[in-house]
Amino acid sequence: MKQRGPGGGRSSSGKPSAGEGTGLRSEPAPIRPKLDKASANDQSLDSIVAADKIAALKLAPVSHETEARLDRYIALLREWQAKTNLVAPSTLPHLWTRHIADSLQLVALAPSAKRWADLGSGGGFPGVVLACAMAGTAEASVHLVERTAKKAAFLREAIRVTTSPGVVHLAEIGDNVDRITGPVDCVTARALAPLHQLIGFAEPLMRQGAKALFLKGQDVESELTEATKYWNIQPQLHQSRTGDGWIVELASAERRG
Prior knowledge:
This protein is α/β, with parallel strands linked by helices. The protein has a single domain (6-10, 38-255), classed as Rossmann fold (3-Layer(aba) Sandwich). Helices cover 37% and strands 16% of the residues. It is built from 8 helices and 9 strands. β7 (236-239) and β8 (246-250) form a beta hairpin. α1 packs parallel to α3 (95-109), α2 (64-81) runs antiparallel to α4 and α3 (95-109) packs across α4 (127-134). The longest helix is centred in the first third of the chain and has 18 residues, at 64-81. The protein is globular.
C-alpha cells in the first residue's frame, strides 16, 4: 500500500511523508552512544545521559521550568528502574532522545490541546512528559491509563514529584471512557498495540471530539493497511524528529460494516 498523506492521499514515491503545515521537519537521528549491560543507577551512565539530554533538547526545546520537571522525572525513573522494568534497559543511555524528545514532539502537533489522554502509559511516555510540558498551562490535565499496578504506582509518584497536572487511572485500556471525566482534546498512545486496536481504544474519545496522535515505528505502512480493513480513516502522517518512526494523526474514525 502506498503512503497516505493528509486527506488520505498517496505519495508517488510510496514512502511516508511528513504532514503539511505542522512546522515539523525531518531531522537526522541523533548519534546515540552505546553502553552494554548498563544498570539504571550506574554512575557511568551519568555523562552519557547528560550528553543525550543536550541532543534531545535541541530537537524539542522546553522552558527551564519544564526542563527541571523532566530532570526530576528522569531521576525518579532511573531509581525505580532498578526494581521495576519501566523501559527497555538498552534505551537507558538514550532516555532523553529516545523517550523524552519523542514524547515532547506531540505538543507541536496539538498546540491548542490542554486536556490529554494517554492510553497504556507504562513508564510515562508520553503521558508524564506531556504533563510536565502542560504544567504551566491553565486548566491543563493529562489522564494516564495504565493496567499494571506497579507502573501505575510509579506514574502517581512521577506526577507528584514533578508537580504536574496528571491523573492516573489503574484500569484496563478499554475502560478509559468510563474512567475519564470531562472533555479530552487529544488522545495518544505509544508502543501499546497495533494501530487498528489503538483506534478501537480511542474511538469513543474521538467520537466526543478528541484528536488522536499515535507514535508508531517504521512499519506504519503495514499497520495502516491493516487498520483500513476495520476503519474508515483519513490519516495524516508526521515524520518523527527523533528517528525513523512516524506519528499517525486521526481526526475521526468510523468502523467499517
